[in-house]
């Protein structure tokens, strides 16, 4: 049940009317959907962004707001937020097609990046601190130098908008980057050559909304609007697990950076009104929770670097920080499955024995009533009113047996529609293929999806494994750096005319 009044925090409570003991703090202040949260590298603070265009920095333990950044800098809802690895800068992306870098200690805007032609949906910093990647609805991923604001390169390959981006987290390298897009694929890029090293396709049937690396870089998790989370082997490009448990679009996911003492690496994913905790290597759902207001979907999730607390942001405008649930050992989980199967077998056996007892009791009753000492009683009479077969898979005794789908109630066969001939199906598939080939020929500028076996003409210079092992930092080859205009903090209000303003009919206007 819930407790609280109109002006207080509304959270799920236990039967005693108290706040759940695993909740550390509830952060309130945003007036609209919380679209992004990220823990400070030290874990003592958390930064949040909202569709109300505000950026707030909070003290995790005390649950109080430390700083609120300029609300008027972004002219449209903010879509994501990330801390710089040094913990001094914060980056925000927005539907106004820009990315802004902020000084977290003073709240001043350092620079604005404006090269995208569509909503900027996510950003990621490289562990060597020399690059930052931004994903946009304009189908591109742009690589920047966060220290100077210079555009280094542009990655093109997704056929639709790019929702997510994440650098490989291990070592001091910026050469391996993962992205996820509306075209149902995730891609691994070599940022030095601007080429796709590997395409992860076939795991999702709809848009890929998020990509996340495990702490050691051995796994990649992707979330999708098809309500699944897929765990990949990034070196082989193979699906390891497909996690099904959400009933709505899975918006975000995050690995616990720290492995549990029992050896389990936890994965958190949010979709609908709950946050699910998974054991990704075993493909097992460890549990789920949701402490936000009823009817308010959870939009984002983050886990601290120490792995001890987890935060979720929702459409109720709140960030709830709680203790990270501990998942059981795999052996314990296997024992639970075995015990469940044994209990199920025992239950079915007991029901079957009960059916036999009922038949035996009715036979004895009929014998006593008819005086048939020989015990020869008609079988149809005995089974009248009793299920004619023992219960199957736990069916209750005495339940009438369902009529066969090919027989009517009186037992007469039902006329069945004749299946289509194989030749008709072959002709249909030939027509579909011809229609597709004609479409691809007419629209040659649009490449067919990867599921049709399209091969990349120019092979990448390095494999994903090579990129994982490359911890040398910057490539020795020269990279063309493109200069562009950066609006400095010192510019006055008279220069605001250069800012792009959202057009009418903006998609966020009706949310």
What does this molecule look like?
With 511 residues, the chain is α+β, with helices and mostly antiparallel strands. It has four helices and 30 strands. The protein has helices at residues 330-370, 379-383, 422-442, 464-469, and strands at residues 2-3, 11-12, 23-28, 34-39, 45-50, 55-59, 64-68, 78-83, 89-94, 99-103, 109-113, 120-125, 132-136, 140-145, 150-156, 162-167, 176-181, 186-190, 195-200, 208-213, 220-224, 228-233, 238-244, 250-255, 267-271, 274-279, 284-289, 298-303, 309-314, 318-323. The strands form eight sheets. A four-stranded antiparallel beta sheet has the order 3-30-29-28, with no helix packed on it. The protein has a four-stranded antiparallel beta sheet with strand order 4-5-6-7, with no helix packed on it. A four-stranded antiparallel beta sheet has the order 8-9-10-11, with no helix packed on it. 35% of the residues are buried. The model is unreliable at 1-17, 387-407, 416-422, 439-460 and 472-511 (pLDDT under 50).
């Amino acid at each position: 049940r819930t407790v609280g009044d109109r002006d207080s925090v509304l959270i799920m409570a236990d039967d005693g009317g108290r706040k759940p003991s695993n909740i550390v703090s509830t952060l309130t202040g945003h007036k609209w959907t919380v679209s992004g949260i990220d823990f400070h590298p030290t874990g003592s603070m958390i930064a949040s962004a909202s569709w109300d265009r505000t950026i707030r920095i909070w003290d995790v333990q005390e649950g109080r707001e430390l700083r609120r950044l300029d609300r008027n800098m972004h002219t449209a809802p903010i879509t994501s937020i990330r801390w710089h690895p040094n913990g001094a800068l914060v980056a925000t992306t927005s539907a106004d097609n820009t990315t802004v870098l902020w000084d977290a200690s003073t709240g001043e805007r350092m620079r604005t990046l404006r090269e995208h032609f569509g909503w900027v949906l996510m950003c990621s910093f490289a562990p060597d601190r020399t690059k930052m990647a931004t994903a946009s609805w304009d189908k591109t991923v742009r690589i920047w130098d966060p220290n100077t604001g210079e555009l280094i390169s542009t990655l093109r390959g997704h056929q639709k908008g790019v929702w997510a981006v994440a650098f490989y987290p291990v070592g001091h390298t910026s050469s391996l980057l993962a992205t996820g897009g509306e075209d149902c694929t995730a891609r691994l890029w070599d940022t030095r050559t601007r080429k796709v090293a590997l395409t992860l396709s076939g795991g999702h049937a709809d848009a890929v909304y998020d990509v996340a690396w495990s702490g050691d870089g051995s796994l990649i998790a992707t979330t999708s609007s098809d309500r699944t989370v897929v765990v990949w082997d990034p070196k082989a490009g193979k699906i390891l697990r497909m996690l099904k448990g959400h009933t709505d679009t899975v918006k975000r996911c995050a690995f616990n950076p720290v492995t549990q003492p029992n050896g389990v690496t936890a994965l958190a994913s949010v979709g609908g009104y709950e946050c699910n905790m998974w054991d990704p290597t075993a493909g097992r759902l460890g549990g789920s929770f949701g402490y936000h207001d009823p009817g308010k979907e959870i939009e984002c999730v983050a886990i601290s670097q120490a792995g001890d607390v987890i935060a979720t942001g929702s459409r109720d405008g709140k960030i709830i920080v709680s203790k990270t649930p501990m998942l059981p050992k795999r052996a314990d989980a296997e024992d639970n499955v075995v015990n469940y199967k044994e209990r199920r077998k025992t239950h079915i056996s007991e029901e079957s024995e009960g059916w036999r007892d009922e038949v035996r009791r009715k036979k004895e009753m009929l014998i006593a009533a008819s005086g048939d000492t020989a015990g020869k009683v008609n079988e149809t009479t005995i089974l009248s009113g009793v299920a004619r077969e023992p219960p199957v898979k736990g069916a209750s005794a005495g339940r009438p047996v369902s009529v066969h789908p090919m027989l009517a109630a009186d037992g007469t066969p039902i006329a069945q529609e004749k299946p289509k001939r194989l030749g008709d199906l072959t002709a249909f598939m030939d027509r579909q293929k011809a229609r597709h080939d004609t479409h691809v020929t007419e629209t040659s500028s649009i490449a067919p999806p990867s599921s049709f076996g399209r091969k990349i003409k120019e092979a990448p210079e390095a494999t994903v494994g090579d990129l994982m092992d490359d911890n040398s930092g910057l490539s020795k080859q020269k990279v063309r750096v493109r200069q562009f205009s950066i609006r400095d903090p010192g510019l006055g209000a008279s220069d605001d005319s250069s800012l792009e303003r959202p057009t009418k009919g903006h998609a966020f206007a009706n949310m």
